[in-house]
Amino acid sequence: MAGVLVVAGDLTWQGSSWSGGPGPSAAYRLLSASVDGIWLGAVVLSVAGLLLVAASARWAHPALPRLARLTGLGLTATLVLGVATGATLYAWSIGLWEAARTWPPMLVGALVCGAGFLWIGRAARSWLLSARRPAGPA
Question: What residues make up the domain containing 64?
């Protein structure tokens, strides 16, 4: 999903009526680059998590479940950060370019990202609930 967001985010701007005008500020460009970096970090953490879960199923080393939980927590934090920075960038874009408010890829992007953000939120909630440590002996 994170890779799709990076590619789709770049495609959103293709052919826009305002893309030939003056460029955005350095802070905007930094935030935009940060969004891509955060989503790529989410991809790396996702792959690491899958590898750790597979290794935990194969070998009974006591450090593997802890590493898997730590990776999952890092992934959850990265996803939350990605949602926050992506929403901030989208809102900033709408504020900078009035034409962006009616640009079809931006409208579709808002719907797709909104659905994706809800999906990420549900996944993070499920992971956090499943990662709770079991209660000790009663």
Answer: 30-130
